[in-house]
Structure to design on (465 residues):
């Protein structure tokens, strides 16, 4: 049994909220640089130059690189031999978010409910997904997710007959419908399989893969990812949706067993302001 | 890059073409979802708008809090289509420019052509760069809305692209059409 004080969790979340909103992860900067090198549209090149310049100014001046400082999504993989001490884990996660958003001059963007749109004032609650795993470690991933791109995400229950081709069509349809609103070049998280709910969580978790654009360890999925990148970039939507040859920098696909009658697919889009941090406690 | 003074000149904006890069300098107002809902309430209830839309430019933004010594925090554009239901109310009352990101509805585009309003796209996710173009910021209405309050901003060389011009051009339609390839 390993004891971890919840204060340590709160402090980690606080630090990650500030860091993720001000410093674009190095591997994602590299992905944008690769995009700049291949983009053929002059306007698209200008957009990518500005995104790279923005990342520098943001880190230097400590101004968030996007004003939509998003939902704070936490993925926690908790070893079953861990015992959290000193209070409620859920409350500690919220405290970390509230402190991080205050300290970092980040925007409080959450309202009490879709119908009571009173701002909660401190960007809580955190949107938390818990997984219990073996061992005595804790892996914590913070994903700061803007609403612009989350709004353009979609889930569909395909039929097994639709197959991989039906899935590809659904993904491209989602990207086309999103157009400029998802703030391309996007990272595309795809969750397929499981149930209605599991596919959505898998899609969101797929966005957190590091480094951006690294292939799935499953060769079949890796091949699908590479094909989807080509197909999505052929849409011509381009950087910021002004037209161009780079619409996505990465497609990450996660798959899970499903029912003989089912083919759930969820597509979660992340804007170019990709804000993800993973740490091990 | 075309330097363009705010408030926008009705004649000068006729020269703009979809895809042009511009640098905007001068005063503008901000407003997004919650503020627009109140604009509509004001108009429908026979009340007054917190600013006169005639000749004005409206930026769809909800900034982060300003750090001490800064005029504003991160200040990039939000998705304009969420304002589509309300924009015609303002365009019909003389609004001359809108700045946001993403496509506009056919109804909004028709109103813009009819009444002479241009839609500019700022580059989303360049909020730190854009914040440096804001010289001053002042809340002029609905302070209770926090980041969604209506601000009067003074901007200097604020970069944007012309999306919908007064001649039917639409960069979000024409740009992707130009670069679209047959799917591999």
């Amino acid at each position: 049994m390993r004891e971890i004080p919840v204060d340590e969790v709160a402090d980690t979340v606080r630090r990650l909220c500030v860091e993720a909103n001000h410093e674009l992860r190095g591997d994602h900067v590299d992905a944008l640089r690769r995009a700049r090198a291949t983009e053929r549209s002059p306007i698209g090149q200008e957009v990518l130059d500005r995104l790279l310049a923005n990342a520098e100014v943001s880190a230097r001046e400590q101004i968030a690189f996007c004003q939509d400082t998003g939902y704070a999504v936490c993925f926690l993989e908790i070893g079953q031999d861990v015992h959290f001490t000193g209070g409620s884990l859920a409350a500690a996660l919220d405290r970390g978010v509230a402190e991080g958003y205050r300290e970092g001059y980040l925007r409080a963007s959450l309202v009490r409910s879709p119908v009571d749109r009173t701002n909660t004032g401190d960007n809580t609650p955190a949107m938390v997904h818990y997984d219990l795993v073996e061992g005595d470690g804790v892996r914590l991933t913070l994903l700061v997710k803007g609403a612009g791109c989350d709004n353009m995400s979609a889930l569909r229950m395909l039929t097994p007959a639709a197959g991989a081709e039906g899935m590809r069509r659904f993904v491209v349809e989602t990207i086309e419908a999103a157009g400029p609103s998802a703030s391309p070049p996007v990272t595309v998280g795809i969750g397929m399989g499981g149930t209605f709910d599991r596919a959505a969580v898998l899609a969101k978790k797929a966005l957190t893969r590091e480094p951006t654009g690294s292939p799935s360890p499953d060769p079949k999925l890796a091949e699908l990812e590479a094909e989807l990148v080509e197909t999505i970039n052929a849409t011509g939507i381009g950087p910021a949706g002004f037209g161009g040859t780079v619409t996505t920098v990465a497609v990450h696909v996660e798959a899970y067993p499903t029912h003989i009658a089912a083919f759930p697919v969820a597509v979660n889009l992340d804007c170019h302001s990709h804000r993800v941090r993973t740490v091990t406690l | 890059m075309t330097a363009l003074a705010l408030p926008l000149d009705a004649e000068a904006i006729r020269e703009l073409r979809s895809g042009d890069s511009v640098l905007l300098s001068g005063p503008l107002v901000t407003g997004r979802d919650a503020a627009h809902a109140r604009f509509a309430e004001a108009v429908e209830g026979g009340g007054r708008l917190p600013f006169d839309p005639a000749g004005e430019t409206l930026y769809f933004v909800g900034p982060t809090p300003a750090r001490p010594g800064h005029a504003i925090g991160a200040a990039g554009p939000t998705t304009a289509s969420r304002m589509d239901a309300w924009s015609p109310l303002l365009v019909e009352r003389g609004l001359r420019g809108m700045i946001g990101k993403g496509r506009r509805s056919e109804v909004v585009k028709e109103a813009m052509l009819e009444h002479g309003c241009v839609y500019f796209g700022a580059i989303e996710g360049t909020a730190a760069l854009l914040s440096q173009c804001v010289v001053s910021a002042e809340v002029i209405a609905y302070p209770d809305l926090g980041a969604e309050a209506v601000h009067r901003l003074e901007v200097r060389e604020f970069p944007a692209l012309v999306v919908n011009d007064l001649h039917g051009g639409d960069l979000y339609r024409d740009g992707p059409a130009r670069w679209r390839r047959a799917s591999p």
The CA atoms of residues 9 and 92 of chain A lie 7 Å apart. DSSP finds eight helices and ten strands in chain A.
